[in-house]
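Appendix C reproduces, verbatim, an entry submitted by the partner laboratory led by Prof. M.T., so that reviewers can inspect both the input and the predicted structure.
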Amino acid sequence: MSSIYQINKGINKPIEFKGLRAQYIGYLAVGLVLLLIGFAVLYISGLSLLVILPLILGLGSGLFFTVFRLSHRFGQYGLLKYFARRSLPRYLKFSSRKIFTALTKDR
């Protein structure tokens, strides 16, 4: 008797939702939660809905545009690599050779 098994073709692939990949889904979710909290704080503080709604809609549109642009520009790990590259110094300057001559080989 032969059995038919379903093969999962999505193993080791990043999560993707509507074109967003990997960590960008989390960035969008956190941004939307912050917008919701901002809306609630502004509404409770007594500000008019005619002021709050355009502000929140504009910030939400900017959030979507920015996150999708970052996702398409950098890909899955590109943004992390970009920030890692920016944190490295352009060059190292030493005033003496002592740091290199004092190195020992430990075994």
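Strands lie at 16-17, 20-21. Additional entries are available on request from the coordinating office.
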